[in-house]
Amino acid sequence: MATTLPRPSRAPLSDPPASLPPLPSSRPLPGSPKTPSSNRTVSSSRLPTSQAPGKAPSTPVPPLPTGQLTEPRSALPTPLSNAPLKSPIGRTPTTVRKVVSISSFPQPPKGNGRFMSHSSSPLAGAQTETRRGSADTDCSVNRETRSKGGKMKTHNGGVALRTSSLPGKGGEPRTGPNGRGSDALLSIPSPPHSRSSSAQGSDSTGATTLDESGDAGNKIVSATQDAKLKREPSNKDGKGNVIVSVRIRPDLGTAEGGKSNEWLFDGQKSLLAYRGREGGDYYYDNVFTPDDGNDRVYASSVKRIVRRVMEGYHGTVFAYGMTGTGKTFTMQGTDPQPGVIPLAIRDIFSYIRETPRREFLLRVSYLEIYNEKIHDLLAASSTNGAAVGINSQEEIKLREDSKRGVYATPLKEEIVQSPTQLLRVIGRGDMARRTGSTQFNARSSRSHAVVQIVIESRDRTGGNSSVQGGKRSAMNPGGVRVSTLSLIDLAGSERAAESKERRTEGAHINKSLLTLGTIISRLSKDKDKSGNTTNAEDRHLPFRDSKLTRLLQPALSGNSLVSILCTVHLSLAASPAGNATETLNTLKFAARAKNSIVSHAKKAEESYGAGSGDAGSRVLLERYRMEIQDLRSQLENQAKAAKDVEDQNERIKEEKEAEQRHEEQILEIQLARTALKERIEHLTRLILSSKSTGVNSSRSFSSLSTRVRNTAASSDTIVAKPLRSSTSHSTLGVPRPASVRTSSAESADPGSPTSNLENSPTTPGEMGSDEEDSVGEYGNGRASVGSQVRALQADLADRNQYILTLERRLLHARRSSHSRTSLQLSPPHRMSEATPEDNVRRLLDEKDAEIFDLRARLDDKERMIAALRTAARKREVAEMTSKRNHRGSVHSRKSSFGSSTTNTNPVSPTTPSSFLASDKRLKPVDEVTRILDEMLQDRVGPGTQGRRGTVRFSDDIKPEVVVDDVNGLEIVKGEAHAM
Ligand SMILES: Nc1ncnc2c1ncn2[C@@H]1O[C@H](COP(=O)(O)OP(=O)(O)OP(=O)(O)O)[C@@H](O)[C@H]1O
């Protein structure tokens, strides 16, 4: 079985590190040991060709000693049955000078590969079946550009090497042209000290694997170890933690260089061979032919890393190569052919869309290292493509942090939310980047440009919430994971330039690239069991010798997944200018990188809280979440406070309104009381007291008593009918019974009607019996005075009661009036115009006017009452006088004089004859009183203008005018009813 086959020996990558990359001078780099080519040369003619294609050898082959130079291929016990290398013109290449042994390189893809010389590439389309997967296609299925026939193309287009021994599709064992039977190596375990180990279950190349758990580093077998070390299973997809690819730039139809049969490549086998001096076969994870577009380059070498970055790993992609070979084209691309950066951005956002359970925050920075100085390309504004103010920037330094690693500061970072925005930001940085014309590139990048996309992500549902002492609930999302994708377009290495500026730039560029090469080279040196380099000098890795290597330190030290895209231009390499060395150096750099970078990339840990220090505070997602929480609670508090204030204002407003209403009511009551008191005083003054002139006459009192009795007897209704009833009768339009108001009670207190009420007779019977008692007790005029006083007191009590009623009604009227006024003011437009003060003022004015009106009317009526009282008093006096006279005449007639009763109209000295003359026309006092009451009712009826409760005469009852001749007053009589 092929699995027992030992590995064929490999030529070690023993080229001196100093030779990579080349210095601008054309002279060989010092200390650049050369492996004797004779020992390394394999004549293609000596390669076994007899074996049938696809057939693996059955004979086990012992491994060659480590470091041993390759034997001629024909001598190798290799299962290969390589076809002879042929030039397109049928010339068999004489030698394959060196077989570059990269033990961990991925195996060539299945199928019938075919080596092609570079120059044949334009024709390759006719011979190859190109089935490039879209950029979305997974790498493992995307390498379907298959050249039929297993031919290796030469640069000038010839078929150089037939790799008929390669297996076809279907996972058959496959051997490389140099005898690397992948399956042959499967069962050989890696030694403990091997730097090349694959994580279990990882999907990677034999050399580098992605360690999902992040524990085991993935190691690369150095070339020197290659022969003796056992091989890891090789992954045909060539994907791992470190992916090294070489891209061959197509000729663009210009006379850029020469054609050569010395350069051969086979994209299918990821092989690039140089048949010239110091040449050899170089295997990589990918060799992209000139036919391969950016999408294929991305899908095979970067896509997987981008996905891993989204999952929490750090990733670094950089393009390396001499000037004009297509680094910028590969990284940026063009509109029809977007490069790695735009394709990565597209995938980043696709991943975000496909992962709803996590939330993301993206920020981007863009810097360039120009002449060993770092410039922020986003901080510099650009005008018409020219960087403005880039030189006046604050110096950007590199710092190191245990969490962040090496980083540039201060550096502007922009938060981006869409692919378009991200592309726009990067495009802005591109505008600010330095470019210049070189010998091989009209628009050459003169600086190393680093786009850094920081991805913060967090599980929305809380993730492993228990880690925080169980305090985090589902409401609190999980910890924040921060990963970084660095996309680097290095400046091109260049030989001596003509202009001074270009030379200075070139010197810096080459120095940094040289340092990078040195580090890569030293990393690939032999290591002892503990992983230390055996050579003491090689233990020192000069990361600090250049800004570029310092910045790349975390990635080169294994913290990151790495994809190196090396670009070559074989036409240039074959040009008479002698760029073959440069191209070779690029290939060697790529080979060493593949062989030396140990990536033990781990998923970034999730962090909780904003943390402390710069590293912690950079977790913007967490900071923003906390800020959002903080702002939310502030908002809630403010809303609560606002509501409290609103409630308080409402309460204050209500209290003010209530207070105002209360004040208004008090004012109204006071006004009403004042008015009523005044009226009572008036009325009290009008009522005759016992001390009044004329009342103290005994004759008068006796006659008064008689009159009262007579009046009471003549009337069906009893005196001292409470005015309450009178009022209600009046209101209902029913004629009120007459009341007797014939005397005054000096002691009556208008302010305390209750006390008067208590003493006042409430029933007609009481009143009547009192009168009778009084008459009976005294039997003269004096006896009736007491009765009169009681009657007056009763009358006063009634009036007080009446006042109370009036007060209530007045209050009620005010309220109704107030509410009507409010309603009138209520329309929105008026409300918005009138302030509450205006309303109150207007209301007060109305009330004042009303009070004034009422007072005026009250005055009128009081004057009328006064006149009527006077008239009534005179009439009563006259009556009493006439009765006394009558009794006297009867008595005298009965006794001695026998005087006649014909004189019915005796003239009293106190009674004017005119009053007596008008006796017939005068109406009883109680009727007048009733009219007055009704008039008073009119005064206090509901409504300010007496609309309701106003006393009106009905149409069918004509008011009767009684003329008081004594006072010259006209008294209107008539049955009234409330309207
Ligand atoms: N694969 C390719 N297909 C088509 N054109 C390409 C390809 N690669 C490079 N080119 C073209 O070659 C020219 C030089 O390429 P580019 O500027 O990318 O080289 P570079 O390596 O970035 O050079 P420098 O280091 O000087 O910046 C450009 O015009 C570019 O469009």
From TrEMBL:
Compositionally biased intervals (Polar residues): 34-52, 706-717, 740-763
Bias kind Pro residues: ranges: 14-33
Coiled-coil regions listed: none
Annotated family: Belongs to the TRAFAC class myosin-kinesin ATPase superfamily. Kinesin family.
Taxonomic source organism: Xylona heveae (strain CBS 132557 / TC161)
GO molecular function list: ATP binding; microtubule binding; microtubule motor activity
Protein name: Kinesin-like protein
Classification lineage: Eukaryota, Fungi, Dikarya, Ascomycota, Pezizomycotina
GO cellular component, one term: microtubule
Subcellular location: Cytoplasm, Cytoskeleton
Residue ranges of every copy of the Kinesin motor domain listed in the record: 241-596
GO process annotations (BP): cell division; microtubule-based movement
Role played: Required for assembly of the mitotic spindle.
Ranges annotated as biased composition (Basic and acidic residues): 129-147, 641-663
PANTHER family per record: CENTROMERE PROTEIN E, CENTROMERE-ASSOCIATED PROTEIN E
SUPFAM superfamilies: P-loop containing nucleoside triphosphate hydrolases
Compositionally skewed regions (Basic residues) per UniProt: 883-894
Biased composition (Low complexity): 1-13, 193-202, 899-914
Keywords: ATP-binding, Cell cycle, Cell division, Coiled coil, Cytoplasm, Cytoskeleton, Microtubule, Mitosis, Motor protein, Nucleotide-binding
Region feature (Disordered): 1-218, 459-478, 639-663, 691-782, 813-839, 876-917
Gene3D superfamilies: Kinesin motor domain (3.40.850.10)
Binding site for ATP: G321, M322, T323, G324, T325, G326, K327, T328
